[in-house]
C-alpha cells in the first residue's frame, strides 16, 4: 500500500471531470444534522450529524454504509420528505445554489419530481396500484408542465420505450400486471422523463434479483449519461458503489467516515471502517479465495460521544473519545480518523493486513 505522501500525489492526478474546478454542484450538503424530536419539538436523538458532500452535474455519487447509518434519512431531508418526528436541526441543503430551507412547502413540492426525483427500493410504492401506468405517467407530466394530453402521452410512451419496455403494452397495464424488474424500469422512466437535475436512487436494486438489478443499474447509468443528470446512488453494498460511481461517501452512525473519488478510496482507503469494509468483500478475480476480514463488534453499535466507530475499532486510541474532524488526504479525498493525525497508518495497515494481500480487483 502506498504511503500517505505517495497517495496525495495519486489523488491529485485523479481525473474526475472538471467538476473540482469550475462547475457548480447540483446538490450541496453542508454540516447537515437531522434529529428525532418529541411532540414538543424537543430533540430526542441526533441521527445524522454534520454531513457534507456535493454532487456535480452528470456524475453518479455513491453513499454507502450499513443498515441504520443514516443514508435514507439524509435522502429524505434532501427530498423535503422527513416525517414529522424528524427535523433538520443544523446545516444546509442547496440545490442548484438555492438553499432549500428558504423555500415554502409549495415551492419544495414543485421541486420534487421536476428537479429532484426519487427511485425507491420498494418499486411497488412508486405507483398507485389501481391506475394504469400510462395514466399515472401522463398525470405526472401534466402536473409539472402545461402540455396537451396527446403530448404528455407521447412523452410517457417515449420514456417507457427508452427504459426498454414494450411501451404500448406497459402504458395500458396496471402495476400488478408487471414484473418487479419492469416496474422498477417504469419508475426509472417516471423519474427521468421530468428531466430532473438530481435523481436519488435509494437501494434501487435491493428488491430485485441479480439479473434484473443489473439491467436497472445499466439503464440508470446509460440514461444518466444521456441526460447528464446527477445521481445519488444509495446502497449498503460496497461492491455496487465501487462499480457504479465516480465519487463516494462512507457513512457510519450518522456521520461521514470517508469521502472522495471512488478510485482513490478503492485503492487507498484511509478510514479503518472503509478498510474493513473492503477487506470484508470477496474478490471477483482472485484465483485462490483469500482470507476475508469480519468487521468486529455488533453491526450498528455506535457511541454517542467521540468517534461513532470506536466501539468496533481495533485501533482506537485516547483521542477517539472526541469526534475526529474530516481531514483532507488528497485534493478531494477526506477521512475522519484520529489515526490520520498520529501517523498511525502503518499500524493500521499492519493490523488490517493491507487490502492488497489478494490479487485481483474489488467488486
Ligand atoms: N421516523 C423515524 N423516527 C425515529 N428514528 C428514525 C426514523 N427513521 C429512521 N430512524 C432512525 O434513523 C437512523 C438512520 O436510519 P436510515 O433509515 O437513514 O438508515 P439507512 O442507512 O437508510 O439504513 P438501511 O440500509 O437499512 O436502509 C436509524 O437508527 C433509524 O432507526
Ligand atoms: S477515530 Fe479512533 S476509533 Fe475512530 S476509526 Fe479512527 S482510530 Fe478508530
Ligand atoms: Mg435506507
Bound molecules: adenosine-5'-triphosphate, iron/sulfur cluster, magnesium ion
Number of helices: 13
Number of DSSP strand runs = 12
Give the amount of beta strand, in percent.
Answer: 15-25%
Alpha carbon gap, first and last residue:
18 Å
Number of domains: 2
Output the helix-strand order: HEEEHEEHEHHHHEHEHEEHHEEHH
Structural class by secondary-structure content: alpha/beta
Mean pLDDT: 85
Instruction: List unreliable stretches of 5+ residues.
Output: 1-19, 350-363
CATH topology of the largest domain: Rossmann fold
Helix content: 25-40%
Please identify the top-level CATH class of the largest domain: Alpha Beta
Task: Please give the order of strands in the largest beta sheet.
Answer: 6-7-8-3-9-10-12-11
**CA-atom Rg in angstroms:** 21 Å
Largest sheet: 8 strands, mixed
Identify the CATH architecture of the largest domain: 3-Layer(aba) Sandwich
InterPro entries: AAA+_ATPase, ABC_Ni/Peptide_Import, ABC_transporter-like_ATP-bd, ABC_transporter-like_CS, Oligopep_ABC_C, P-loop_NTPase
Subcellular location: Cell membrane
Membrane topology: Peripheral membrane protein
Domain ABC transporter: 27-278
